[in-house]
Amino acid sequence: MADTTITRLQARRVWDSRGHPTVEAEVHLACGAMGRAIAPAGASRGAWEAVDLRDGGPRFGGLDVLQAVAHVEGPIAKALRGRDAAAQAEIDGELARLDGSPRFAHLGGNATIAVSMAVLHAAAAAHGEPLWRYLAQGAPVRLPLPQIQIFGGGAHASRRIDVQDFMVVALGARSYGQALEMTAEVYRAAGSLMAAAGRLRGVADEGGYWPAFDSNEQALEMLTRAIEAAGFTPGDEVGIALDVAASQFGAKGHYRLALDRWERDRDGMIELLLGWIDRYPIVSVEDPLAEDDALGMMAFTRAAGNRVQVVGDDFLVTRADRVEAAAREKTCNAALIKPNQAGTVTAAKAALEAAKQAGFGTIVSARSGETEDVTITHLAVGWDAGQLKVGSFSRSERMAKWNEGLRIEAALGRSARFAGKAALRHAG
Ligand code: PGA
Ligand code: ZN
């Protein structure tokens, strides 16, 4: 057996897809294996997620991460040297103990997630296995059903449109590879329609088109037309998934869509979304109400949860305790799993397991600030999450993750199974 004792930890500042500083960690083991991972960064962050530690001050708009880097090379390296990288839960427990705060405010969730994922990579490398296979430990796995962004909005496109993600789900795909092919056609068709209509303004932070629409609903119309133009039947072969990210424009039960000059209470917001679900082939809605609006989430799930997947992102922040509360209170029926919201791999896995236990859908997700790091694709397969959300179908920080899925599909060969539309909760 390879000696998986941690001998050395290194960190450095690298740069993400927005040109912002972020933390890369490298873990070296006695057997010579090495693991490396990079922390992603959100722009529309949940109030309860792990702290993304930034230096403040004049450099890079206050976004430098030299403290987080120093925490990896100082206290974290000291605590983890000599420990066994194969004991992920113990390593992650040690990170939580060392930090001592509920949200990694001292060490920085960006420091801890980079280290935690790097430890995981190192252990898999020591076993001579690809990460997804190391994680699965012989259990059956499926390639995930992708949610892929076509239009970007909200905090990812200077709020040019209020709803954050207009995505497609290839319901008719029989394989992961085919889901990507279908999405590629829709992405192309949407780009052509947008250009012809004079509404194309480049791409937003996650690679989806940056649209110049006159209302939020216009994006739904255009997306439905793009699905048809690509040769697919909306709702049958290709469905729409929304990330409303309502915490960005709503609080205390009050909601305001700037583009539509529209302002209402939670009942009005729910009514608006239900109208969209009636008129468009929507199969999944993420954060339909704000993170502080459990009553609204509950009412929306009661009204629409038997027809569409209701996903908690900012609402759950990849925390097992919040997922368990959501299962009790029926405030959603699916959980977005973002490892850096949790701060460690083990905490993210706990949230995923709690969601599965509750019968929720589970979607492993990237952040809007990403890099070449493809860990999440392996987590989606190895943990058999069923769904994967990475952003759009352009820009290499996104494509690296979709393409990694193709490699895993190829490695599985004839035994590759695809989660398909059955992975969605209550859609269709
Ligand atoms: P973020 O958004 O990474 O900017 O927080 C992504 C999402 O809301 O899913
Ligand atoms: Zn979200």
Short structural summary:
This protein has 428 residues and is of the alpha/beta class. 38% of the residues lie in helices and 20% in strands.
Q: What are the main properties of this structure?
A:
428 residues; alpha/beta; 8-stranded mixed β-barrel; 3-stranded antiparallel β-sheet; 13 helices; 16 strands; 38% helix; globular; binds 2-phosphoglycolic acid; binds zinc ion
Report on this structure.
The protein has 428 residues and is α/β, with parallel strands linked by helices. It has helices at residues 66-80, 88-99, 109-126, 131-136, 176-196, 216-229, 266-279, 294-304, 320-329, 339-342, 345-357, 375-382, 396-412; strands at 6-15, 21-29, 34-38, 145-152, 165-169, 200-203, 209-211, 239-243, 250-251, 254-257, 262-265, 282-286, 309-312, 334-337, 361-365, 386-392. The strands form four sheets. An eight-stranded mixed barrel has the order 4-5-8-12-13-14-15-16, surrounded by seven helices. It has a three-stranded antiparallel sheet with strand order 1-2-3. Strands 9-10-11 form a three-stranded antiparallel sheet. Helix 5 (176-196) packs across helix 6 (216-229). The radius of gyration is 21 Å and the shape is globular. The model has no long low-confidence stretch (mean pLDDT 97). It binds 2-phosphoglycolic acid and zinc ion. The site of zinc ion has 5 residues, from loops. Residues 42-45, 155, 164, 243, 245, 313, 365, 367-368 line the site of 2-phosphoglycolic acid (PGA).
